[in-house]
Every structure is written in C-alpha cells, then in structure tokens.
Structure to design on (337 residues):
C-alpha cells in the first residue's frame, strides 16, 4: 500500500507543479490581452497596488462609460479612477471594491453610480473570462462569484482546470499573435463615439426589476464601512434618456430605495433623471448610456456640483479656471436633486 501511495505521489506532485507553473504563465499572458473588453486593465491596476486615487468611481457600465477621470484630475487636481464593472450589479462591484481596498491606498471620496439594476443579482457570470487569471486560490473571488452559473468549485483550486472549456481557439490566437500596445480604457473609463442605436420599448412591455435582499444589506454595510473610515460617499443616478425611462415599471421605487438610504446615512444623493442632459437624445447612443461627448458634459456637471457643495477639498482651485482639457465646460446643464 505504501508503495502504491508513493507511486501516486511521484506522479501527481510533479504533474501538479507543472500545471501550476503553466497556469502562472497562461494567467500572466492573458492579463496582457483585451479578451475581457478592458476589464483586465482594471484588475491588473488593482492587483499592482499603485492606483492611489483620491476619487474612486464604482458602478456598472453606466459608471465606466459616464465618469471621465481625466476631467476630475485636470479641474480638481485630484487623481481619479473609474472602477465601473460592465454588466454586473452591486454584488460583484463590491468584490472589486474589496480587492481595491486590499491592495491600494484608500481614496478620500467614493462616487457610487447607482442605476435601476444596482440591487438586482443576475444568475449568470457575465464576461466570466475576466476572472480567469486571478481566481486561483483567491478566496474573495471564490466567495463572491461561486453563487453564479459560471465555474465549478474545483476551478478555483485546481491549476489549469478553469481554462478548459472557457478559452477558445480564437482566444489562444489573440494571446499568441496580438501585440497590445495601448489600453482600451483610461484609468477605467471608456468614452464611446457611437450614434443612437435603440429606442424605448413600448409601454406594453414594461420591465420589473427585482431587488436582491442580500445585495441591499451588503450595500448598507458598504456605506457604513466607508463612513467608519471617514471616506466621503456620494450616490449619483447618472443621466438616462428620458424617452426610455418608462420601460421600467418600478423605476421610481428603485430610486426611492437609494433616496431613503441617503437620508438614513446622511450622504449626498444626486439624481439626473430629469436633467437637461437626460432630455438631450443627441448625448446618448442608447437609452442607458451616454456618448463620449455626453460623458464629458455630465462629468463636468458633477465636478461643478462637488465644487459648489464643497463635497471635496480642492488642492488648487486655480486649475479649474485654467483648464485646457475642459472643452465642454461652457455647456451647462441643471440637475434635479
């Protein structure tokens, strides 16, 4: 029996070690590709531990497409980073927040971009390839992604296993033959130069968005954590085309949850639902997302709000008056609190 166990060990231990080092090589190589639509860039920056943002923006695609860090930097002299996570709700946005806080200096201010879907929890692990290079033996990724239809338990703990079935031939070709010279995003942000592509659905097909009670409790804990660390938090419902707002039957109820939460925790809540930006179809490429021009106009509005309400301390106010990058600052839009 001992001899049999010894033979097994002499076979499996070298095989496991070889799988581990191949895993390291593959993971490091995939991190340098654009296979996950720019998400690798954000995860890489998080785990590198040198983001050092004064202002951190969290949310979904309506965060990473709407808040331009370059404008925060140039007008406020504050470093900013956009952690918007495409296609996911607060449950996984919180995972990104935890990993960011684990490896980086904590910010002075967090802007959380809420939307109708923030407290929903989807079943599928959308764009799950983004986790492949980082998930081996990472307990937090395991804890927050295991409840989705995506990976088996063994995928988190056995080297190489998660790559089988999740990486296609074209991904390998991309890995071998694509020379990635420039980033897809700038500090997490991506502006879209796209034309309008969709109109609101008819009133006969209104959607009801469910609230995940666990996500709601987690969000409240998140706000409490920030307040305990004396980090400012600002809740923002960014512009959403007015013509498409009626497709969500319980939209006002969802926004009401965050308004009540803002009141409960005494934090700012800025709602752009009825703003002039939301009424201007030319600033959107679909009902939920602004174009790059729209994002710059909106970001400048947020910066004006922060300055007017003294929500953050500005290191050098003269920069706001001498900003060459602020090409849309003259176009002012009112907001509705």
């Amino acid at each position: 029996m001992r001899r049999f166990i010894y033979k097994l060990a002499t076979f499996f231990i070298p095989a496991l070690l070889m799988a581990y080092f191949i895993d390291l090589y593959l993971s490091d190589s995939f991190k340098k590709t654009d296979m996950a639509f720019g998400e690798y860039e954000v995860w890489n920056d998080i785990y590198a531990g040198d983001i050092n943002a004064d202002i951190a923006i969290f949310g979904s695609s309506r965060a990473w497409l709407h808040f331009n860090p370059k404008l925060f930097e140039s007008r406020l002299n504050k470093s900013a980073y956009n952690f918007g996570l495409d296609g996911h709700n607060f449950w996984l946005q919180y995972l990104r927040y935890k990993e960011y806080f684990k490896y980086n200096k904590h910010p002075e201010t967090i802007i959380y971009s809420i939307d109708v879907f923030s407290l929903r929890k989807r079943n599928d692990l959308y764009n799950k390839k983004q986790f492949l290079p980082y998930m081996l033996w990472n307990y937090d990724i395991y804890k927050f992604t295991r409840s989705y239809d995506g990976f088996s338990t063994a995928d988190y703990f056995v080297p190489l296993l998660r790559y089988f079935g999740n990486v296609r031939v074209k991904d390998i070709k991309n890995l071998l033959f694509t020379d990635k010279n420039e980033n897809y995003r700038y500090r997490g942000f991506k502006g879209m130069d796209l034309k309008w592509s969709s109109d609101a659905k008819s009133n006969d097909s209104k959607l009801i968005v469910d609230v995940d009670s666990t996500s709601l409790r987690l969000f409240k804990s998140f706000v409490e954590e920030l307040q305990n660390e004396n980090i400012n938090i600002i809740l923002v419902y960014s512009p959403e085309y007015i013509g498409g707002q009626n497709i969500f039957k319980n939209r006002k109820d969802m926004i009401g949850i965050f308004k009540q939460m803002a009141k409960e925790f005494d934090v700012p809540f800025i709602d752009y639902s009825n703003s002039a930006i939301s009424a201007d179809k030319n600033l959107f490429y679909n009902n939920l997302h602004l174009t790059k021009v729209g994002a710059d106009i909106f970001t400048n509005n947020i910066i004006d709000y922060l300055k007017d309400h003294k929500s953050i301390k500005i290191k050098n106010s003269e920069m706001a008056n001498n900003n060459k990058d602020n090409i849309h600052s003259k176009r002012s839009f009112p907001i509705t609190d």
